[in-house]
Write a structure and sequence with these properties.
mainly alpha; 0% strand; Arc Repressor Mutant, subunit A
Length: 76
C-alpha cells in the first residue's frame, strides 16, 4: 500500500463508528464469515453485509477522489 493510500485508509477508518471498525477488522484482518461477525456484534447477517458494503463504497469513492486529486496535481 502506498503512503497516500495508507493515510486515506486511516482517515476513513477514523470516521467509522466502533462497530463498523470492528466488523471491517473481523472481515478483512481476521477473515471471518458474515454469519460469524453477525453473531459477535449481535446484528442480523443482512445488516452486517449492508454496513460492510457501505464502507466499501465509501472507501472506493474516497480512493477515486484521491487518485483524481493526484492526477490534477501532476498535470498542474
Amino acid at each position: 500500500m502506498h503512503g497516500n493510500d495508507a493515510t486515506l485508509v486511516r482517515e476513513l477508518a477514523s470516521d467509522l463508528d466502533r462497530t463498523d471498525r470492528l466488523m471491517v477488522a473481523l472481515r478483512y484482518t481476521e477473515e471471518l464469515e458474515i454469519a460469524e461477525i453477525a453473531s459477535l456484534v449481535d446484528l442480523d447477517p443482512s445488516e452486517v453485509e449492508f454496513r460492510l458494503d457501505t464502507v466499501r463504497i465509501k472507501v472506493a469513492r474516497a480512493h477515486a477522489a484521491s487518485l483524481a486529486d493526484e492526477r490534477t496535481r501532476r498535470s498542474a
